[in-house]
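Worked Example 4.2. Consider the chain below.
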Amino acid sequence: MKDGTPPRAQGFADRGRAPARPEDTGLRVRQAFERSFRAGEVVFEEGDPGEVLYVIASGEVELTRQGPSGPRLVARLGPGDFFGEMSVVLGGARSVRARCLEETRLLELDGATLQEMCLDRPEIALRLIRRLAARVIELESRLAALGIDDLLRPVVRVLVRRAEPAPEGVRIATTLRKLAGEAGLTLLETHRALQQLLERKLVRLVDDVLLASDLDSLSTCLDAAD
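Applying the procedure from the previous section yields the following structure tokens:
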């Protein structure tokens, strides 16, 4: 060291310094990770790889998901809200399209940066957990308000459309995420509908492929839902 202080002593000296103020940390984060978007500009498309999450510093963002009858509004978010976290935490592609409704400033954080921020400032992790918990509660309330037939209808239609002849009846090769996207439902809604079909023994899961005895049984279920 130039000042003659041993590295270990220098480390202890650093520890004695006043911790960075939250406003200073916030300024550094904004300078390093902030991006600006024009009104109408798309942040990411449904199906894009998801490597970062976004925190809205200013402006408004609309999230939509493509359904059988066209785009369906998922949410409108404003300053302080975040989006895109599920792809970062769980991996996989974007399940929605994000578009700015006005001039918007976003903080763009990858998984590693988010982890470092949560370790450095636990209140960020607590805030993230609270937001995720609130979204789960919202989804559960939505599911409770929906009848199961409202979920079965779009799922069964996709399964019938994707069904291919097989020795054991028909087979449907898909994933939960793809099925949810084509049905215009959330992953949780799609999982609930599939669980009902499995419990009714209308389909069965073998080696990650859905099998059904025939299309008539699925079509009957569709008629009942309609």
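The longest strand covers residues 70-77. Residues 122-145 form the longest helix (24 residues). Compare this with Example 4.1 before moving on.
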